[in-house]
Amino acid sequence: DVNFLRQDAHNLVRESLARTEIETGGGPVIGTLTILYDHDASGLSHRLVHVQHEHHAEVMSTLHVHVDDRNCLEVLLIRGDSSEVRLLADRIRALKGVALGELVLVKTGA
């Protein structure tokens, strides 16, 4: 159906523009940072908590899941100015022992 394809193309363009705006500009955002890490990494759990406390204004909530006997998955619900939220995500993803980190943001307009 042609209308479906037009709508799909419109959605892709809108999502791309929104993503570019978040990545290049400031402004309020909300989203998640999902990380997978080795909880046995020396001092990592302490460093993760420390960084989150330093960014207490941005960290709204966390979900912690024990994946197996060594790995943990943590999802942080975050909000704030996009530059501060990206700084928080970069700091956490750079910690030794963090294997994966994915940041997903949406602009709030608030």
Written overview of the protein:
With 110 residues, the chain is of the alpha+beta class. It has helices at residues 2-24, 44-54, 82-93; strands at residues 28-38, 59-66, 71-81, 98-107. The protein has a four-stranded antiparallel β-sheet with strand order 2-3-1-4. It is globular.
Question: How is this fold's topology laid out?
Answer:
Elements (H helix, E strand, L loop, with lengths): L1 H23 L3 E11 L5 H11 L4 E8 L4 E11 H12 L4 E10 L3
Antiparallel strand pairs: 1-3, 1-4, 2-3
What share of residues are in beta strands?
A: 35-45%
Structural category is: alpha+beta
- The side-by-side strand order for the widest beta sheet comes to 2-3-1-4
Which regions are unreliable across 5 or more consecutive residues at pLDDT < 50? none
- SSE pattern, N- to C-terminal: HEHEEHE
Amount of helix: 40-55%
N→C terminal distance: 36 Å
Query: How many individual β-strands?
Result: 4
Indicate the radius of gyration in whole angstroms.
17 Å
Sheet with the most strands, sense and barrel status? 4 strands, antiparallel
Summarize model confidence as the mean pLDDT.
Answer: 87
Q: Count of helical segments?
A: 3
Could you say which overall geometry the principal axes of the C-alpha atoms support? globular
Features:
single chain; 110 residues; alpha+beta; four-stranded antiparallel sheet; 42% helix; 36% strand; globular
Short note summarizing the structure:
The protein is an alpha+beta fold.
